[in-house]
Design goal:
There is one protein chain. The mean pLDDT is 90. α2 packs parallel to α5 and α4 runs antiparallel to α5. The chain is built from five helices and no strands. 81% of the residues lie in helices and 0% in strands. The chain is elongated. The protein is mainly alpha-helical and 176 residues long. Keywords: Membrane, Transmembrane, Transmembrane helix.
Length: 176
C-alpha cells in the first residue's frame, strides 16, 4: 500500500465516486421497472373508470417526471466517468509518471466498436419508454377530451416538457 497521502486521498475519491456511480446506475435501471408499473397502474385505472381522456394526462405527467429523473441520473453517471477519465486519472498518473495508465476500464470500455450503435439504440429505447407514452397520452386526450381550458393548458405544458425531455435526451447521447 502506498504511503503517499495525496495518492491515497485520490484513490479514496475514486472509490467514493464509483460507489455513487453504482448507486445511481441501480436507481436509473430500477426506474424503468417503476415506470412500467406506473404505466400499467394508470392504464388499468383509466380502463376501469371508462374512457376518461383526461386521466391519460396523468400518464403524460408520470412519463415526463420519471423520464427527467432517469435522464438526470444517467447524466450524473456519465459525469462521474468523465471526471474520472479527464481529471482524476491524470492527477493519479502525475504522481507516478512511469506507471501504467490508471483506471484503464474508464477508457477501455469506450473503445468498443459497437459502442456507438448501443448508444443510439439506448437513446431510442429511452425515447420510446418516456416520450412516446407521454405523447400518446396527450394525443388520446386531445382526441377524446374533455376540453376544459385548464386541461388543455396542462396538456400543452406537458407537450413542451416532453419535447424538451426528448431534446435533452438526444443532446446527452455521447457518441464520441
Amino acid at each position: 500500500m502506498s504511503t503517499d497521502p495525496l495518492r491515497e486521498l485520490l484513490l479514496a475519491e475514486y472509490g467514493q465516486l464509483k460507489e455513487e456511480q453504482r448507486a445511481r446506475i441501480g436507481l436509473r435501471d430500477n426506474l424503468i421497472y417503476v415506470t412500467l408499473a406506473a404505466y400499467a397502474a394508470i392504464v388499468v385505472g383509466v380502463t376501469t373508470l371508462g374512457s376518461q381522456g383526461a386521466l391519460l394526462l396523468i400518464l403524460s405527467g408520470a412519463a415526463t417526471v420519471l423520464g427527467w429523473t432517469h435522464l438526470a441520473n444517467d447524466e450524473k453517471i456519465s459525469a462521474i466517468g468523465r471526471y474520472v477519465r479527464t481529471a482524476l486519472a491524470p492527477r493519479v498518473e502525475d504522481l507516478h509518471p512511469r506507471a501504467a495508465p490508471v483506471f484503464g476500464w474508464e477508457e477501455t470500455h469506450r473503445r468498443d466498436h459497437r459502442r456507438r450503435l448501443r448508444k443510439i439504440l439506448q437513446a431510442s429505447t429511452d425515447l420510446l419508454t418516456f416520450n412516446v407514452p407521454a405523447l400518446g397520452g396527450l394525443v388520446y386526450y386531445w382526441v377524446n377530451g374533455p376540453w376544459h381550458w385548464s386541461l388543455i393548458t396542462g396538456s400543452l405544458l406537458l407537450l413542451v416538457a416532453s419535447f424538451v425531455l426528448g431534446w435533452q435526451r438526444l443532446l446527452h447521447v455521447d457518441l464520441a
